[in-house]
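Structure request: HAD family hydrolase, Sphaerimonospora cavernae.
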Amino acid sequence: MDAVLFDMDGLLVDTERVWFEVECEVVTRLGGSWGPEHQERLVGGSWERSIAYMLELTGADVAPVVIGSWLMDGMERRLAAGVAPMPGAVELLRELADHGIRAGLVTSSLRAIADAVLKFVGREHFEVIVTADDVTRTKPHPEPYLTATRLLSADPARCIVLEDSPNGVASATAAGCRVVAVPSVLPIAQAPGRVVMPSLRHVDVELLRSLVV
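Returned structure:
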């Protein structure tokens, strides 16, 4: 196993709930309403797609850059109060470090959001960090995970990706990585090259190593 790559929102930290609150706030400001069925369409997607969907949903005449600033302000305000790691996340990161296994973070969030989250999780756990600011095509395109493996000089086929969304799983699979899915908002089915687990508490180094043939 060359490395383990972590998604962030909904996998490493409990931020899908925070995103939902901010999205509700922004869409209400745009004159619309927001529910779980709307969030489900955006899980694991790009910043640009989220903004475009909000405009499509509400028909509001507001510049995308303005909506982006509202989303960023809302997230930074809430993240300043702290964010909770998902169950088992910190323990798994420590176990990887104890075994000398390299780790990376690969997120569709912007760098500013990742920086805010890592204040509570610990940047020191990750040798590389790839955000939406570092790629031209976000998940489900394979570019984010291919970028991380390139920065690590790692073979994608010998890397394990931990993801919570179908978009993230699609990105990692297309990059040629093995995948452990821990679904959050949307269900994810078992498939060749993929293991689905109920929580990071059920993931350890022994399991991860068993996935690399």
